[in-house]
Amino acid sequence: MEGDVGVVGVYAEGLNGLSHECKPTEEFSNGHSHLKPVMNGQTLGHSVKDHTNGNSQLTLLPISALKQNGLLQTLAAGGEQLMTEEENTELEQARDEWEALENIQPALSEDSCPTPLISFNEALQHFQTTDLGELLKNIQPTVRRSGLAALTHFLFGPPRIHRELLEERDLVFAIAQCSLDNSQPVHMRVLQTVYKRLTGSRLDCPRYGTHWETIGFQGTDPATDLRGTGFLGLMHTLNLVMDPETLPLARDIYKLSQHPTQNFPFSVMSINMTRIALHALREEALSKECNRRQQVVGVLNEFYVATFLHLHQLWKSQQKTISDSGFVLKEVEMFAKKNPKQMLRRLELFLKERRSGGAPRGPSPDPQGPQRSPCLEEQGSSSRGKEMHFTGVCDLPPDMEGEARLI
User: Fold this and answer.
1) Tens of pLDDT along 53-95?
2) Residues 218, 265 contacting (CB under 8 angstroms)
3) Which residues lie below 8 Å from residue 266, measured CB to CB, with a gap of 6+?
4) Which CB contacts under 8 angstroms, 24+ apart, belong to 319-322?
């Protein structure tokens, strides 16, 4: 064989993990030799040029011509060099890491397994079977009246709650005295359930952290916002998000609370609805309905939802913002306590329309619908243009005592 023949033998590891041997084969035609590369027993076509000087140069194909996307690099003209073993290893490592990304799953340790959701009835049963004797000593289930006020209330006020319902009523006020306890699994499950149902998360969140502000608490510890209503504030939110009929409403209100201009702290607002419901129960505005249904907890839950619905409709339809919050809360409380039957009826119609697939209507425009209080009209307009921070359940200003006073 005349002259020198440039032969390149390459061993490369392909993406399928197999070694491919690329070596030349020699064919003879009319006394001339033609070299062709072979990989895994297959002959790959390429061009061979014969020169008059007897030298024959082998031109290898680019990578795209080789199957399996092997790790060969296109040979540079005039100085073909093979990939070093170290580069091979690094590229293979990178490929394995990339493929592993598709299979990554969040690893949960034994201690971080998600806690199961808890229903309102299960949480209520916990308090029914817990000794709340010390808390019961401190409750104030009715408004203390004396003299002419007591006589007027007795003659013209709402009926008193039936004797057989007193224990259930007192339980409600005892729960409102109960603080959030980290050592109570039921308490932690309620807190986690509220967070998961509002955010859609399936994993538990830390007990403390800024993530609680996402669902409308004012700080890193929800317990600080519960001082006005105790654990009852969480119980009402739990009932709202765990009842299939009211869950869509809860998400509508939560969505509005995230609005760019109409936003408000959802959980703090919910606690204020609990506060209004407790005031209505204490002032015996709900006694007639409780006596009719022979239950207290169920009526109070519905009144809480009805009050939240009323606030949601006002806030959305009248384009309220944080600067209006104090006056809106006062108006909602005054109307709700004065018209409990109408509030409950509106909730009933709202849920009925939801069940039938119709679009729920906003606040009623008729004369019997919610009327804006004069103080809201005047004070609301005067607050335009100046910043007002949202008033939580524990920090209402002194000039909002009376109807908006906290428990």
Assistant:
1) 445 455 555 555 554 554 445 444 444 455 566 667 777 777 7
2) yes
3) 198, 215, 216, 253, 254, 257
4) 319/262, 320/262, 321/261, 321/262, 322/263, 322/264, 322/388, 322/389, 322/390
3-state helix/strand/coil string of the chain? CCCCECCCCEEEECCCCCEEEEEEEEEEECCEEEEEEEECCEECCCCEEECCCCCEEECCCCHHHCHHHCCCCCCCCCCCCCCCHHHHHHHHHHHHHHHHHHHCCCCCCHHHCCCCCCCHHHHHHHHHCCCCHHHHCCCCCCCCCCHHHHHHHHHHCCCCCCHHHHHHHHHHHHHCCCCCCCCCHHHHHHHHHHHHHHHCCCCCCCCCCHHHHHHCCCCCCHHHHHCCCCCHHHHHHHHHHHCCCCHHHHHHHHHHHCCCCCCCCHHHHHHHHHHHHHHHHHCCCCHHHHHHHCCCHHHHHHHHHHHHHHHHHHHHHCCCCHHHHHHHHHHHHHHHHHCHHHHHHHHHHHHHHHHCCCCCCCCCCCCCCCCCCHHHHHHHHHCCCCCCCCCCCCCCCHHHCCCCCCC
Token digits of residue 164: 């057989």
> Rounded to whole angstroms, how far apart are CA atoms 371 and 360?
20
Kindly state the greatest CA–CA separation across the chain.
Answer: 131
Backbone angles phi and psi of 37, in degrees to 5: -75, 150
H/E stretch holding 127: helix 120-128
DSSP 70: -
252-292 tens-digit pLDDT: 999 999 999 999 999 999 999 999 999 999 999 999 999 99
Instruction: Give CA–CA dist 157/136, Å, rounded.
Output: 26
d(CA 249, CA 224): 26
